[in-house]
Amino acid sequence: MTVASDLKRDAAKRGLITAPGFIDLHAHLREPGFEESETIATGARAALAGGFTTICAMPNTEPAIDSPGLVAELIARGESAQAARVLPIATITRGRKGTELADLVELAAAGAVAFSDDGSPVADAQLFRNALEYARAAGRPILEHSQDLTLSAAGVMHEGVVSARLGLPGMPAAAEESAIARDLALAKLTGGRLHLSHVSTAGGVELVRRAKGDGLAVTAEVTPHHLALTDEWVAGSRAFAWEDDAPRAVPYDTATKVNPPLRTAADVRACWAGLMDGTIDAIATDHAPHASTRKDVEYQEAAFGISAFETAVPVLLMGVSAGWGTWERVVAALTTGPARVLGIDMPEGDVVVIDPRAAWTATAASLRSLGKNTPLLGRPLVGRVIAAYVDGRLRHELSVALAP
Amino acid sequence: MTWHRRHVLSTDDWSRAEIDLVLDTTSAMVEVLGRPIRRTPVLRGRTVILFFAEASTRTRVSFELAAKALSADVTNITASGSSVEKGETLLDTVRTLTALGGDVIVMRHPASGAPYFVADRTDAAVINAGDGWHAHPTQGLLDAYTLRAALGDLSGRRIVIVGDITHSRVARSDIDALVPLGATVTLSGPPTLVPSAWRCGMTPRGTTYEPDLDRALDGADAVIALRLQTERQHAGLLPSIREYAHTWGLTEERVARMRPDAPVLHPGPMNEGVEIAASVAHGARSLIERQVTNGVAVRMALLYLLAGTPEQRE
């Protein structure tokens, strides 16, 4: 008798739902180098509180994870945290500088599950071609942050009506679309395993759909915030894309500053459509915690990123309740989808228990992550992870004091 | 109409009644400024802090004269724009400003939205004296006042705003002040300097975009020329300043396309010979000096509405 089946029976009696432990392809744990924003231990615990029992750590730390020794160190620190399973992603290029390839084969041998220079697209097309070719030898996917920096570098939010009104420099959707088009062409040329990180535009989703239709072995992810929040949030709206009205907040809240930026309601709808028809394979949080010193500043100077582990499940459940997607498909994109991207088996003893009706409000104090940078603080939410098991052991349980 | 705002950060959500109240109060202040002794005691004992994190002479002096004409105490704080380079964060500055205990903080800042950051963290009333590309509400209100004084009721009037719209807080605040008063606004300028959304049919309510300045000016009731920052050329947004002057500069021939006597405004400081010919800037249609005078009166009106006691406002 497995933990999963026992739990499932008990949970159903109490109106709870269970699911296999979630796998997050995209998280920033900040250690080493930025421990005031998050550590591997705090991040791995916050992940469990959000239902993620396996998380892939992005390598944009200081130092960047570009050598086998660093990969091994990250694995050791992840194990000692005794929380979510931490899988290291290594850089594509040495030091994330975008000039020469890191030792991809040795990094894979040391345990790197994928390669990414996340935050810094590989601008040099020849170098990116070489990365895709070489990653075949390593047997691992390249996770690319597809963005043309010559179009987006000055921007701090989505370019559109809202940025025009707020007087903030924008990042056009074309910055993502043109980069995805290039990356798809290079994947086709090389046969390398390309996974597109945080696709956020309707045009980007459509490019992936067509590439898959043509038989290209590409995969793609979307974040919970790109499935719910819009650029109107920068102007103070707190209405999810499927809502007409909601309380407002002060405009220029730096918690809404994220890259790729929050897009329009039409883009959100396209991301759900891509998720539902299989164009999008995975939901990944892009959990990007920041210390308050990086966020409690002018909008243009604030760091990009949303602390996202602990609010992912309610946001997705609320989207499902609004009829924009199905829970079955959401769960697949949180479990089997990302497992396929990584080429790993689903860990059998990983289970999460969710109360789909729990109404709660995220506060800075209630978040386990050191990063309190989410525009969802104070926003009424429905649905909450109440327990998480890793390898059959209970590793997270919502304390009675916090339970509804 | 009673005044209920704590801050003046932008006029993008103001009603016509609110704008009318400010403009009517401005008329009273113009009268004060016409007296032999240009001073009234309504803000005696109040402190106005001028926090300018971006170079400005005109606007700062205008606010200073306005506060002094109302008998307020005025103090100046200047800071370099970027919190990164000055080593003091905006949050530090807000804490200092709050501890100093001013009644009104007048602030200019290079970052769009910075006044919201300050207003959210202080008890003082905040007046935005210009934030990045976003808003310059006192300029919008003084332009509306100047145009109303020249043209009468602005209902059905068509005002042209020409130049670098994208980077212009003046353009945004002019739109926000003029459209509620019933005017329509025609935006004109190079496509690289007008927000893409506004060129693709999603222009703000009450506005249209017409790249051809001659067509925009045909039959217009007034024109507001914006300052062209020469660094836009270095950013690749303009082929040359010379071409800009030929294509979007206000010349005698161009302004003659408007209705007879239709006025010309400019927020200053001007690049004469670039966005406006010297003969237009100093010609019969120009209200540019009037704008400067009215600016003091509008700022007096707002300081009074924000910091005057309710009894004084009766």
pLDDT average of chain B, as an integer? 94
Radius of gyration of chain A equals: 20 Å
CATH-assigned fold name of chain A: TIM Barrel
Q: Helix/strand/pairing class of chain B, anyone? A: alpha/beta
Task: Give the end-to-end Cα distance of chain B, rounded to a whole number of Å.
Answer: 12 Å
DSSP, total strands of chain A: 14
Helix content of chain A: 25-40%
CATH class of the largest domain in chain B: Alpha Beta
CATH superfamily of chain A: Metal-dependent hydrolases
CATH level-four homologous superfamily name of the largest domain in chain B: Aspartate/ornithine carbamoyltransferase
In words, what does this structure look like?
The complex is a heterodimer of chains A (404) and B (314). With 404 residues, chain A is an alpha/beta fold. Chain A is 34% helix and 17% strand. Chain A has helices spanning 3-13, 40-49, 68-81, 104-110, 125-138, 149-152, 161-166, 173-190, 202-213, 265-276, 292-295, 312-321, 327-334, 336-342; strands at residues 17-20, 22-27, 52-57, 85-90, 114-115, 142-144, 157-158, 170-171, 194-196, 218-222, 282-283, 351-361, 380-390, 393-397. In chain A, the strands form four sheets. Chain A has a four-stranded antiparallel sheet, with helices on both faces. A four-stranded parallel sheet of chain A has the order 2-3-4-5, with helices on both faces. In chain A, β10 (218-222), α10 and β11 form a beta-alpha-beta unit. In chain A, α5 (125-138) packs across α8 (173-190). Chain A is globular. Chain B folds into two domains: 16-135 and 293-313, Rossmann fold (3-Layer(aba) Sandwich); 137-291, Rossmann fold (3-Layer(aba) Sandwich), CATH 3.40.50.1370. In chain B, 41% of the residues lie in helices and 14% in strands. Chain B has a five-stranded parallel sheet with strand order 7-6-5-8-9. In chain B, strands 2-1-3-4 form a four-stranded parallel sheet. In chain B, β5, α7 (169-178) and β6 form a beta-alpha-beta unit. In chain B, α1 packs across α14 and α6 (137-151) crosses α7 (169-178).
